[in-house]
Specification:
Length: 275
């Protein structure tokens, strides 16, 4: 099976989605001082530990948004579902943007995220409606930071392990929760080397595939050090054009049940897939 990594084609432009992380947290005396103490006095250490804290938390509901800008065209792909950080598995319903004529162009795509693999249903021309497409994320030049149209929530957190700098921007309220906002730069290559085993292959592929390893991030941690929101911003070359990408993951309702059942082998499409 050959998968061509082109999410959207608009005329001569093919826009692919990438990683963006946005977060919010606060620091200003009283309760904020306590929040900082719990999250960790060292901003860099607090950010780097985010993936471990999520694994301890277990599960969460998730919303994602991947914004791309190229040649004056802006597109946003949105996703919603749940994620189990202990098993590194999740399920998202991904909605593609409307085309310039106002048509949705495609029904929502169901994505199953698992260690080393991405499963997609209702994705790819010529794929029967009852079949899934399976992609080995370690073979993708973006490590599935772009291809799925929604960054794997675990990968978004694992990217922070490569943080080279982090400062506290301030404190704010995010969906009724007091959070601390950190801003800094992470390195994809360093993150791949420091990543958990389930994320190492995909991030190593991304480190090889992107021209630059540096990614700007905004991360928002709550008083327990849990990542509530993360936004990564970077750019990459796609068919001769520079595509700016911002990938955002929002996590909430920690502990919510998350059930992910991977397709049986007979339910996976074995033919050639044109993305």
């Amino acid at each position: 099976m050959v998968v061509q990594q082109h999410w959207l084609r608009r005329g001569a432009c093919a826009a692919a989605a990438v990683v963006g992380v946005t977060g919010t947290a606060g620091c200003s005396g009283g309760g904020d001082a306590v929040a900082d103490a719990r999250a960790g006095a060292d901003p860099l250490l607090s950010v780097r530990k985010a993936a471990d804290v999520l694994a301890e938390a277990g599960t969460a509901k998730a919303r994602t948004a991947m914004e791309t800008a190229a040649g004056g065209t802006r597109l946003t792909i949105r996703g919603e579902g749940g994620y189990d950080f202990r098993r590194a598995m999740g399920r998202l319903r991904v909605v593609l943007p409307k085309d310039p004529a106002g048509s949705s162009g495609h029904q929502p795509i169901t994505e199953l995220l698992a260690p080393g693999a991405l499963y997609m249903k209702d994705r790819g021309a010529g794929v029967p409606s009852d079949k899934w497409v399976r992609v080995d994320t370690a073979t993708l030049s973006d490590g599935n930071l772009v291809t799925g149209g929604a960054t794997d929530p675990a990968a978004a957190a694992e990217l922070l392990r490569g943080a080279r700098s982090a400062t506290i921007v301030g404190h704010e309220e995010l969906a009724g929760v007091r959070v601390t906002h950190y801003r800094g730069t992470t390195d994809i290559g360093h993150a791949a080397r420091a990543a958990s085993p389930h994320a190492r292959g995909a991030l190593a592929a991304a480190a090889r595939g992107f021209a630059e390893d540096a990614v700007v991030f905004d991360a928002y941690l709550d008083s327990e050090g849990r990542l509530r929101k993360v936004r990564h911003q970077f750019s990459f070359a796609n068919q001769g054009r520079t595509v700016a990408v911002a990938s955002t993951t929002l996590l909430y309702e920690f502990g919510a049940p998350v059930v992910v059942r991977l397709p049986d082998r007979g339910d996976i499409y074995a033919g050639r897939v044109r993305m």
